Amino acid sequence: MKNLFIVFFCLVSVLAIKANGQESLWKIQAVDYQGTYYGAAVANGGIGILPWKEPFSVRHVMLNHVFDAAAPQDVSRVLRGINPFNLQMQIDGQGVSGDNISGWGQCIDMKAATHDTHFTYGGKADISYSICALRNMPYAGLVRVEVAALEDMYLSVENPIEVPDEYKNSGSKQVSVNVDGNELKIVRTWALSKYREQKVSASSAFIYDKNPNLQQQYDGTNRIAISLKKGDKFSFALLGSVCTGRDFIDPYNESDREVIYGAKEGLNRLMDGHRKLWNELWEGDIMIEGDDEAQRAVRFALYNLYSNARKGSRLSISPFGLSAQGYNGHIFWDTELWMYPPMLFMNQGIARTMMDYRTDRLEAACQRALSYGYEGAMFPWESDDAGEESCPTWALTGAFEHHITADIAIAAWNYYCMSGDKRWLREEGFPLMEKVAEFWVSRVEKNNEDGSYSIRNVVCADEYAEGVDDNAFTNGAAMRALQDAAKAAAVCGVKAPAIWKEIASKLRIPKFENGVTMEYEGYNGQAIKQADANLLVYPLNLITRPEEIRKDLEYYEDKIDKTGPAMSFSVLALQYARLGEGDKAYELFVQSFRPNQLPPFGVISEGAGGTNPYFVTGAGGLLQTVINGFCGLEVTDNGIKQLFSKLPKHWKKLTITGVGPDRKTYVRMQK
């Protein structure tokens, strides 16, 4: 056991730290216990664990796509799990808390995907612990602890299980199992969610080497205790699992089985498996020479995207991932426009599972179209696990922000272009794209005066604009969806209806007299929540002439609400990089994350000055600036191309590894 708890700590603040070799660029540190604190979750695509600054504190556990409601007859809300990962420690009968510690430090090790803490308790003990959501066990997490006695002491540790207030009918019991001749004492705690009665079960157990001096007892809570002499070191671990009725018919026994499996595997094998899978993820990496701040921000963004999804799960990522209940854990356009594109380049398995989420819910989208008098498939603005509309009724976005249906179809075509998987296109991709095309044929209205087509009464991507006609992004996205559906039909040997191409060629995109793209019919310079018309350049590629791109950039930059979502500045930065203006691109790039970073780790909020991390959507935006802007990568009908672009003048080199299905490396050098 003594070699299992190696934890690395650095002694400088994350936002001011200087580079100390490449190793430091994998770590984000905090040392000011009294400072403002916003936590950073560890996640594995199945659960998210949010450690806090107090010794051994875990604020909550998030469950992936497990929903209840916040109140009777309310919309769905993702559940916090029963929390089996909390520890409480006493030394000589005194509780270890933030009031009696010194030398506190925390470190997020992105390469190892661990959240590490170290402190000294009252001159009596040096204590280190490391928390991870096991990548190789998507419903399990591990807390590894080492206590070094600085004087003779009596140590006791308990594992109180926390049941959040969104549950009812909770219960708990201890289960004893023989594992390799050792008695493994598991505490199982279970409950039902309040309104939809989701079954949730959490199990946990202490794991340690045999020691005749160690005592373990259960009085509703698992406890261990041991006397230590000065110079002794004692190591142990807490292994926990949270299972639900969404994923298991019998989550109660399954949560026990997960703990038994982990105990039998042993901590070395568990951590080896965890590290192996994270090493595979990091085959897709981004390296920036000449800007340590950007390197950490970009790698942290990539780390969070990897953390919040996993291949094979057939699930997607909500705007706040597995860090919090923000936006009720629903799936928005954030997935297809902002988080999915980086994964399409960096990790094919995760990109595929994000597409699986949508193809699995095509039937629900067809039912929604039928419910509103349309043909084909109409995807919800806010999707829960059933794929039904879950947007609160006070928001018009749920009923009228229709561009999401086109966004999903475009993502499907891009997946085919990247993967070249014709079988997937025939069996899953084209059936979705065809239904989306049918929706837009039924949604548009023909203008008799000139034969053009309009889409009326929508909420724009700029959500400050409601009930408008011919929104630039909505119409542009519908145009792309129809064009891509026709191309997909040709690949699949199907004759596309002629109306698809006709509508795509005649959808109205309003323009000002000077040629600037008008956000919607009648727009006259109002403040906008986020980029909209500029999205016709990227990602839609409908405006390609540099002079037109520049006009739209210059017009809309100062119209964007500076406290709005961070992605606007990401997409503007990307376009300036492709225009060859690397320094202007950099100015906007840092605006997409600096004002949103929160201490001590630099987790990002949705908007500048916000306090709601971690905003995974923003991470997707800043990654696109680097991948598709500064490096110039583009997915085309014929695969990946590297377009012209410029780096910021202080960046020496940008290297992106593990790109696409062939895991290629792309480089952009400073010239």
Automatic annotation (TrEMBL):
Q: Which InterPro entries match?
A: 6-hairpin_glycosidase_sf, 6hp_glycosidase-like_sf, GH65_N, Glyco_hydro_65_M
Single GO molecular-function term? hydrolase activity, hydrolyzing O-glycosyl compounds
Pfam families with a match to the protein in the record: Glyco_hydro_65m (PF03632)
UniProt keyword annotation of Hydrolase present: yes
Range of residues in the leader sequence? 1-18
Reply yes or no: does the keyword Membrane apply. Answer: no
Entry keywords, A to Z: Hydrolase, Signal
The Glycoside hydrolase family 65 central catalytic domain covers which part of the protein? 299-524
Any Gene Ontology biological process: carbohydrate metabolic process
Q: Per its UniProt record, what SUPFAM superfamilies does this chain match?
A: Six-hairpin glycosidases
Stated name of the protein: Glycoside hydrolase family 65 protein
Originating organism:
Bacteroides finegoldii
